[in-house]
Amino acid sequence: METRVAEKKWRKRTLNNRPLKPETLMMGYGYDPMLSEGSLKPPQFQTSTFVFKSAQDGKDFFATIQGRRKLGPDEEPGLIYSRFNNPNLEVVEDRLALWDEAETSLLFASGMAAISTALLAYLRPGDIILQSRPIYGGTETLIHSILPEFGISQVAFEAEHGPEAVMKAAEEARKKGRVGAIFIETPANPTNALVDISVARKASELLTVDNKRPPVIVDNTMLGPVYSTPLLYGADIVVMSLTKYVGGHSDLIAGGASGSKAMLAPVRRMRSTLGTMADSHTAWLLMRSLETLKLRMEAGAANASKVAGFLRDHPKIDNVWFLDFLPEDHPDRPIHEKQNKSAGSTFSFEVKGGEAAAFRLLDALQVIKLAVSLGGTETLASHPAAMTHSGMPAEELAKYSITPGLIRISIGIEDPDDLIADLSQALDQV
Fold it and tell me: Which of 11, 165, 195, 290 allows an S-S link to 157, with CB 3.0 to 4.6 Å?
């Protein structure tokens, strides 16, 4: 958009020198109603292309988007084509950056689109990616099946083995070649295993070659933006599936990446080239969802605490992987207390009796839905070993405690007593 004086008003983050909270800014930040006929909510800009006021504007806008021209201090990038930018995407990106405490954000067509684009922006043939384990099955497939076809290999460390494992893996990776990126998922899907982001940052600094430090990319899908802010602890880029908590209604697919303008510049360029951005309607839906993000996540987290407590005390349950249940002497406990503001609403539990028992429980649920994904208003339950992580070898599943009896549950905003009653009657049939 061209420079407008009013922009300073609709990007204002303070009131009489008082910082405004993100939940307040979600109602209007990044949008001036007077630029859209006074519409209270941003309309959907369902258009592929944008009309230039002049040929010079067209020239300047293209030069800016392609990096040949720098913007002035109060200048906005002009609108060209929705593969590059769109008002709906820009509003969501402005607001997502507030939750992530980032300089800027980018919107993608899915969480995997965000992850893939970020990695492809930084990795080159011959590079090594240093990764944590366990991670989401889709990311695992990307790193282990797709990237090797481009000459990119991996070195992994186990989240449960702590800082020593990270540094040992970093040294191993350094001996194999240039480390192009460090990718971690914390909390990990589905076990909620934690990685100390500051340790990953230390590894990144040790892997610096020719003044180039591999970026620390953190997948924050499992806990979400309200309860985890990886950029504050040493991450360079935080990625997540916005399908989950941010979308929140199980009716869209989207992803996001947040960080500094400098770190996201190659990611933005890669996104524009590959065309992995979200569409305007998805962005419009995300604007709606962002307004209630904190309310939904707080309700889900409160419900999850009650449900997890019920499961922990049930005789047919072996383990409950809920972050607030970590013993005081557990090595993940200080990481949780440092990095996370809550245990969130997604966790896993292990049913006695293996896959057969887990399947009987899942099939007996009446209120809780049997489906993959998480972070929606409704409670969902799934079987990681048979579903989201089914592409992993059996020995790998066992190694990361993704057992045949493991069920992942994402708690929604229903009445928690109703959810407990549903689980109770299902467990009676196990």
Answer: 165
